[in-house]
């Protein structure tokens, strides 16, 4: 019952997961502009946070299995490095509909936390260079700021250099 009350008060599965885990986090909400060309860059600009500290959640297909990559919005995902990080041979970006259906989130609001089906997660190794990073809270126009260590622990992520600048 408490979970439902949290969601009714504006929470998302991601913020509920963080609250239930007792992890310190800060929610940053902003007005999402549907015409902005990049969800991640929009978040960094709206929060006035360096794009190196704002991470996007991307879903890829590695040898037939969906995998989450969390990389800085300032760069892009290195698909070959992602495949290597999870012991695969080939990675391609996942079909957006499959990513939404599997995670329970909409594109531009996919969070590495509180997913409908927990996917294997790789956090770009650059995250460890920051005291806190921001990731989607599970809704366009809403980010959560937390320590990279807490994010890695909650998602059981492996750290690997999967982002390209």
Would you count the extended β strands for me?
10
| Unreliable sequence segments | 1-9
Spatial sequence of strands, sheet with the most strands: 5-2-3-6-9
Q: For the terminal residues, how far apart are their CA atoms?
A: 44 Å
Mean pLDDT: 91
Strand content: 25-35%
What is the ordering of alpha helices and beta strands?
Answer: HHEHEEEHEHEEEHEE
Count of individual helical segments = 6
What does the overall shape look like? Answer: globular
Structural class: alpha+beta
Question: Major beta sheet, specifics?
Answer: 5 strands, mixed
Round the Cα radius of gyration to an integer and report it.
15 Å
Q: What share of the residues lie within helices? A: 25-40%
Sequence-ordered SSE layout with sheet pairings:
Layout: H1 2-8, H2 13-21, E1 26-29, H3 39-47, E2 55-62, E3 65-72, E4 76-77, H4 79-85, E5 91-93, H5 96-103, E6 120-124, E7 133-139, E8 142-146, H6 148-155, E9 158-160, E10 163-164
Parallel strand pairs: 3-6, 6-9
Antiparallel strand pairs: 1-8, 2-3, 2-5, 4-10, 7-8
Task: Characterise this structure.
With 165 residues, the chain is an alpha+beta fold. Helix content is 29%, strand content 28%. It has helices spanning 2-8, 13-21, 39-47, 79-85, 96-103, 148-155, and strands at residues 26-29, 55-62, 65-72, 76-77, 91-93, 120-124, 133-139, 142-146, 158-160, 163-164. Strands 5-2-3-6-9 form a five-stranded mixed β-sheet. β7 and β8 (142-146) form a beta hairpin. It is globular. Residues 1-9 have low confidence and may be disordered.
